[in-house]
Design a protein that fits this description.
The chain is mainly alpha-helical. It has one domain. Helix content is about 65%, strand content about 10%. The strands form 2 sheets. A two-stranded antiparallel sheet has the order 1-4. Strand 2 and strand 3 form a beta hairpin. The radius of gyration is 19 Å and the shape is elongated.
Length: about 150
């Protein structure tokens, strides 16, 4: 029989889940500040989209550990704390951010993203103003409100 080093325990996973959620909140707060100050260019928006999906996938993978919900409730000393419901809300809010970016990004008639143009022989990313990204900020703020 081999040493079981690959199984995940609720103790380790819950700490990692909380750490990942706090990192997500810091990331979205920073991005919201950037958006409100100067908007984003297409490359930054693509990076935001990919990062949101990475966070969602990481959180989803961690949340699948058996016994996590009971462990979280015990650790928070709150019998009414429903980690599953709270996680589902956070996950749905992350999905809303990703779906919004997909749906709102300007596309040509064939569905290709309108992201760059040549300016003086230089490939330049499209600029999205703070005003154009207001709905995105609102959706990102919902992500933040899902994390305390």
């Amino acid at each position: 029989m081999a040493f079981r080093a690959s199984n995940k325990t609720p103790v380790v996973v819950y700490e990692r889940l909380k750490s990942t959620a706090l990192n997500l909140k810091t990331y979205t707060n920073n991005r919201i500040t950037d958006i409100q100050a100067q908007g984003l260019d297409a490359d930054e928006l693509e990076n935001l989209y990919e990062t949101i999906l990475q966070f969602k996938n990481s959180l989803s993978e961690l949340s699948s550990v058996n016994g996590l919900a009971a462990y979280a409730s015990d650790q928070e000393a709150d019998p009414n704390y429903d980690v599953v419901a709270e996680f589902q809300t956070l996950s749905a809010n992350l999905t809303d951010v990703a779906d919004y970016i997909q749906g709102a990004w300007p596309k040509d008639a064939n569905g290709y993203l309108l992201a760059h143009q040549f300016v003086n022989d230089t490939l330049t990313p499209r600029e999205f103003t703070p005003g154009e990204l207001t709905t995105l900020v609102t959706k990102m703020e919902l992500v933040n409100s899902s994390i305390s």
